[in-house]
């Protein structure tokens, strides 16, 4: 099965990017993990997804990036039909209150994670937000039962007639 959902990680420091990807590696069998070190590179990935018949379910994005910052990227994603529904997470140690509030209000920010983060917290947030995304946007969530919140996915499938208790 070719993964139809992408996790996009945007971070300009290579060692931090590697750490984020390492901390979410349990999801790699079910989701493509794409990496970008600038907002512009992330935009290229976003623009290429329709050709690959994929969608971004989750973005984990740093704020301080060369060129365009992460909050501005997240706001642009919220304004873009292709990425409006993407679950957006800001992972940063440098976004001030004003920038964070801007991301919450204009980019539908789902979570803020301060650096340094707890790997278990990052994994839990990733699981929760991808479960939310799958419930809202994927017709058959069954392939994701092994990695996401199986109880929530099963409840959703029962409520929508995908599976029954009998």
Average pLDDT confidence is 91
Structural class determined from secondary elements: alpha/beta
CATH superfamily: Response regulator
For the largest sheet, list the strands in their spatial order.
Answer: 2-1-3-4-5
| CATH 2nd-level architecture | 3-Layer(aba) Sandwich
Shape: globular
Low-confidence stretches: none
Q: Can you tell me the CATH class?
A: Alpha Beta
Number of strands: 5
Sheet having the most strands:
5 strands, parallel
Question: And the CATH topology?
Answer: Rossmann fold
Alpha plus pi helix count: 6
Please describe what this structure looks like.
This protein has 166 residues and is α/β, with parallel strands linked by helices. The protein has 6 helices and 5 strands. The chain has helices at 14-23, 39-52, 70-79, 97-107, 119-137, 150-159, and strands spanning 5-10, 32-36, 55-61, 87-92, 109-114. Strand 4, helix 4 and strand 5 (109-114) form a beta-alpha-beta unit. Helix 3 (70-79) packs parallel to helix 4.
